[in-house]
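Q: My collaborator sent me two sequences in one message, no labels, and asked for predicted structures for both. Can we handle them in order? The first one she listed is below.
A: Yes, handling them in the order given. First sequence, followed by its structure tokens:
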Amino acid sequence: MEPGIATVAALIVGGYLLGSIPAAYLIGRAAGANVYEVGTRNPGTANTFREVGRAAGVAVFVADALKGALPVVAGRLLDAPVPVLAAGAAAAVLGQWLPVFMRFRGGAGLATAIGSGVALTPLLAVIAGAAGLVSVVVLRRTVESAVAGYAVLIMAAFLLDADWQAVAAGFALVVAVGVRALIVERPWRSTDDSEA
């Protein structure tokens, strides 16, 4: 049975509010730091890991990943189709980017997108994640390892006859995070340009 409009709206609004929970800020504060005032001032996993500590960084990653996974899990329990699951996941990522509880100053959203992807395609995520992890250990380069992980994900999706809607939704979320990071951080600009 298709979910009603109220159910879809609840998943989207709930996803956004869940994504808006400032995990990095709360965990950082509990450890005696304000992630908005240290390092890159980004309320995410990497800044917390570097400036607050490894345990805090891992806790933020898990919390932010859960924010992406929970709307998908809730949608599956309600027997919602993949587009609705993807909408709830996208809303969680949007909440991480623009959290209503923190005056719309949020993080990059990668951990939240990863959590959504894992919930959308659990087996493929485990396979691709393992490939990416091995690649990181061997190559010690994150970009190449991410490419390797996604290449394995695509091959595994073919071999396992995966739900391509779910694969595409998870991939689209990660691509959206990457595109936003390029637009917001503008790494191609020189230091002199960024200070102008």
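Q: And the one she listed second?
A: Here it is, processed independently of the first:
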Amino acid sequence: MSIFNRKMPLLSGEEQDLSEYEGKVALIVNTASKCGFTNQYEGLESLYKDYKDQGLVVLGFPCNQFGEQEKGADSEIASFCQKNYGVSFPVFSKIDVNGDNAAPIYQDLKALAPGLLGSKKIKWNFTKFLVNKQGKAVRYASTTKPEALKADIEKALKG
């Protein structure tokens, strides 16, 4: 199973073929603009800049399912990310990560890397999934700062 066998719209409305990320190391994050963890955008951008030439891609998926902390339209989210954090990694159109309307990529991620006690639910904004070149995923909590993932990213890039 590949989580990348689909196309999804970016904030710009342009369709992105996720198969372009096949064989790379991907850090996939459900984001929100009005969350206590929103400043993690800065760390995510730093990781992207530091490791993109080695094969890391950071993929942001805005979601409004947690405390309605991502109410804005795609254009507002794009403006916020660029203006406040200089985000240059791909950020996609707003999705659901839980429930009947959960985006297929998140259904796959939750199956690949269940949470605590096998939970399939995403608990909050900025839950992170690190997917290695072979498609294996590890889940990290919202509280895990992006910079704390450096060693795991470096290991995945070597593998």
